[in-house]
Amino acid sequence: MIELRTPAEIEQMEPAGRFVASVLTATAAAAKVGVNLLSLDKLAHDMIRAAGAESCYIDYHPSFGASPFGKVICTSVNDAVLHGLPHDYALRDGDLLTLDFAASVNGWVSDSALSIVVGTPRDEDLKLIDTTTRALAAGIAAAQAGNKIGDISAAIAAVGHGDGYTINTDFGGHGVGRTMHGDPHIPNDGRAGRGLPLRPGLVIAIEPWFLHTTNRIVTDADGWTLRSADGSRGAHMEHTIAITEDGPLILTKRD
Ligand code: MG
User: Fold this and answer.
1) Which residue of 16, 59, 172, 201 is most buried, as measured by CB atoms within 10 A?
2) What is the CA(113)–ligand 1 centre distance, in A?
3) How much is the average pLDDT of 66-83?
4) Å from CA of 245 to ligand 1 middle
5) CATH, residue 120
6) CA of 246 to the centre of ligand 1 (A)
7) Is 1 within a domain?
């Protein structure tokens, strides 16, 4: 079911967006060479407690998950790109790290992700992050009342394909509201002018992710972490946005 939010409800969603942005900013800043993924999860957990927020992940147990997630942030390293389950791993120089975080504040959810390089970057990883960042910006720019879902998908895909990446459409954007995942699904590739019309009040997460040399993923032995099928690295950028009469409003914008 597609739910539209009133301007007053969108205003009520802003604290969740700001909180999610603040956790990503803090965990990204803390992600240095030698820092353990479990301590990034602890930092996010401490911030949740201090803010009186609620984790969307800790009890998350969808059909594809082996058991409840049990952590509050996704940490995907190198060939892991989505749903990375934090584990006992100290970050190494040159690691490509994706942090994906969602939380509820006052009953409203926001969801956002970013990829960074820890320590000394490889050029190819910076390029992948840059493409993913521009794909997110293009997707958001297409999230205008009067457009269709397919316009967002096509805008993301044009950037990804333009830089030579292939695209997986199994996991993509989604509606956000009282819960983390709702309708509509927003694939990262699609045809412009097709699909659900975008109306003011629609709140969605837009989340392009690309892998260097494949669009196929496999599930790790931990039952959660999704890795590239060929071992190549991935990047992922996500914002929760509200479609308004005045254009897209990025709820999870970082300073
Ligand atoms: Mg997310």
Assistant:
1) 16
2) 6
3) 94
4) 25
5) 3.90.230.10
6) 25
7) no
CA of 48 to the centre of ligand 1 (A): 16
pLDDT in the model for residue 139: 98
What value does the mean pLDDT of the chain take?
A: 96
The Å distance, Cα 174 to ligand 1 centre, comes to 9
52 inside domain: yes
Ligand 1 centroid distance, CA of 102 (Å): 6
Residue 5 has pLDDT above 90, yes or no: yes
**Residue 2 lies inside a defined structural domain of this protein:** no
User: Domain range for residue 26?
Assistant: 7-250
Distance 112 CA to ligand 1 centre (A): 5
Distance 172 CA to ligand 1 centre (A): 9
Centroid of ligand 1 to alpha carbon of 204 (angstroms)? 11
* Model confidence pLDDT, tens digit, residues 117-129: 999 999 999 999 9
**What residue has token string 């992948």?**
128
